[in-house]
Amino acid sequence: MEKVVLAYSGGLDTSIIIPWLKKNYGYEVIACCADLGQGEELDPLKEKAIKSGASKIFIEDLQEEFVKDYIFPVLKSGAIYEKKYLLGTSFSRPLIAKKLVEIAQQEGASAICHGATGKGNDQVRFELSIKALNPELKIIAPWREWDIRSREDAIDYAALHGIEVPVSKEKIYSRDRNIWHISHEGGDVEDPGNEPQNQLYVLTVPPEQAPDKPSYVEVGFEKGVPVSLDGKPYGPVELLSKLNRLGGANGVGIVSMVENRLVGMKSRGVYETPGGTILYRAHEELERLTLDRRTLQFKEIVALKYAELVYDGYWFSKLKYALDALVEETQKTVTGRVRIKLYKGSCNAVAATSPYSLHDQELATFSDDETYSHKDAAGFINLFGLPLKVQALLDRKTK
Question: Is 13 a catalytic residue?
Fold first, then answer.
């Protein structure tokens, strides 16, 4: 009997895929779940997968690797997709795919299966990563094959096969959660004309219900990597977890957006990224202090391409590796501390210090100083504005 490794979450889609695979392919199904910080969602998975028909299940704790090797590189790049999305689902898929390939090779499986729909981005992210890591593995995507056309159909299929699923036709949201964020799609959220309701949120209190007094946190960085909070060192997972709780309690990190999916359609989703939002604000402020103007501006251009590559599933690509090397060079002086103020959904950097600060108080001061000669500016302006002067003189002659 051939074996297939299924990317298993215990959600609606992957739950019904197990009996579908056995019936339509006759494969032995090995479930694989990546623990990326989903929390209590993982507790019932082992029993559930076996009960649904899997021969075995691997639940792999990948949180440390996820934060260090996937979240922090994107944070250092400054990548944000379409100015809003902090890529929480996007950069989790290549790590999951990497683990699927490892287990497939370990178990002698000939195929990998995922539950991504034919309308979404995840099918591309999973499959591009698998092709990059082991192009010989067969890929099965049931949503592109079966007769199920909606989440309502999937719920009916689960009921027919006696499979318990964590959704109903009344609570039909599709969610993806890890230590970085949680996303919400489907149901009333699909319509951009609907304001997200407060009961939707999982990690974050609604901003208007947050405390009336602001909270502060000081984030310490070494070479672009967050390493401490309020002067106390923390490991990657613990640091992000603490910021999630702090940001969530202050209503920070909620984003509602209509995004352009890779497959060509627009979709509306709601994201909660409390700790990640704090880290982005802090890292951005520290870069403003420690990077020169041209490097900072070019890095903004790089961030756009980096976000596109991650969103599109090109994590394991030559261009992505090259951009990683460039970003790493820029981070050599991004060391210091940033104080963040959190208040009813707002997240602002209010102070920053660094041993590599390019801010020179003597040069920048409005007080009397002996370092900067104001007279020097005249010659600079004459040269800097020379092209404009030449063009204006020419325009006068040719009119």
Answer: yes
Question: How far apart are the C-alpha atoms of 378 and 370, rounded to whole Å?
Answer: 17
Higher pLDDT, 166 or 295: 295
Nearest to 150 by CA among 262, 49, 13, 265: 13
Residue 398 lies in a domain: no
- Mean of per-residue pLDDT scores for the chain: 94
Catalytic residue among 92, 93, 129, 176: 93
Say whether both 165 and 185 belong to one domain. no
Share of the chain above pLDDT 90, in %: 82
- The secondary structure of residue 195, as a DSSP letter, is P
Q: Which of 90, 122, 176, 177 is catalytic?
A: 122
Active site includes 55? no
Residue 381 lies in a domain: no
Q: Where residue 165 sits, what CATH number does that domain have?
A: 3.40.50.620
Q: Tokens for 155, please give them.
A: 């719920």
By C-alpha distance, which of 86, 141, 101, 171 is closest to 263? Answer: 141
pLDDT in the model for residue 163:
84
- Is 174 annotated in the active site? yes
Domain of residue 246: give its range.
Answer: 181-291+334-353
DSSP state of 206: -
Question: What single-letter amino acid sits at 33?
Answer: C
- In order of 140, 336, 339, the CA distances from 220 in angstroms are 44, 6, 9
Task: Tell me the helix, strand and coil percentages in the chain, rounded to 5.
Answer: 45, 20, 35
How does 158-175 read in b/e, with b if 16+ C-beta sit within 10 Å?
Answer: beeeebebebeeeebbbb
The mean per-residue pLDDT over the stretch 228-247 comes to 98
> Is the same domain home to 99 and 136?
yes
